[in-house]
Amino acid sequence: MTSEAGQLTLDEAYSIASRVRGIQGKKRVGRKVGFTNRAIWPVYGVDQPIWGEVYSEGLFSTDQPVNLARYSEPRIEPEIVLGLKHAPIAEMDNAQLAGCVEWVAPGFEIVQSIYPGWKFSVEDSIVAQGLHGCLVLGDKIAATHDVLTGLAEVPLALFKGAEAIESGKGENALGGPIEVLAHLVSLLSDTDQLQGGELVTTGTLTDAWPVSPGEQWSAGFGGVMDTELSVRFT
């Protein structure tokens, strides 16, 4: 690992990640916030959320199969995604932050680990671009007041084929997606601030589950979202 014996601080890890992104030169379409589900912190040996970037080349619709060959030890995470109309700032309260959101959508983030067996530190995960692989984005839902205030109560059921895998709820991610947005805004430096038009995927509502070619996964999002999402892996 990169940070054994405390060799890296959080600031250093984010600095390395930023330098790597600069070399790659990819088109950013948004951010991912990871480890927002505190229930899984002990599983991965972490103790706080992290963030990374989402790129246009890694954004998929539900009718596009995802080729897993490009990812290392891939896993699937069902998430609620926010689409921003306006740029949020740190001085905003949660109601003002919610006012920056134009749409919400179901999402599957495919995460990956370059560290064998998913063994890493928080700093390692930051250096590895927040463990982000790609994002499968479902149908967008207008961010009305009722939708935004009901996101924390959204129930979720995750399936592999016809097999029920796990259930979750919007509040599993730091209390709700708007709370995740607030936390992300507090984490970002002046040079990394969110912009209108970006999306934010707010973290898994279940554990992250290993996926393999040939599988089809789906999730049902209830409550104010009332929608489904599916993805096929090749």
From TrEMBL:
GO terms for molecular function: 2-oxopent-4-enoate hydratase activity. It comes from Ruegeria profundi. PANTHER family: 2-KETO-4-PENTENOATE HYDRATASE, ACID HYDRATASE. InterPro entries: Fumarylacetoacetase_C_sf, Hydratase-Decarb/MhpD_sf. GO terms for cellular component: cytoplasm. It comes from the Bacteria. This is Hydratase.
